[in-house]
Write a structure and sequence with these properties.
The protein is an alpha+beta fold. It has one domain (13-68). It has 1 helix and 5 strands; from the N terminus they run E-E-H-E-E-E. Strands 2-4-3 form a 3-stranded antiparallel beta sheet, covered by helices on one side.
Length: 74
């Protein structure tokens, strides 16, 4: 039996879905900007919380780039 699955061609073999997190600062903004430049799209709304010292933020991104269809034999 052949099972067809979709595989995304992501940069550097990164996952299709990524949750970026960090302190709300320039470095976090650069991390999100880099993901967008690689071809990821924002997924959902950002989230923020306070850990007693810093505001911690999260943003999900999802790969919307090319996909290939691979056939796996079972």
């Amino acid at each position: 039996m052949i099972n067809k699955t979709k595989q995304a061609l992501t940069p550097e073999g990164k996952p299709i879905y990524r949750l970026l997190t960090g302190v709300d600062d320039k470095n976090f903004c650069l991390k999100v900007s880099e993901a967008l430049a690689l071809g990821y799209d924002l997924y959902g709304s950002p989230a923020a919380t306070f850990n007693g010292q810093n505001i911690i933020v999260a943003q999900a991104v999802i790969w919307k780039g090319e996909e290939i269809i691979s056939e796996e034999k079972k």
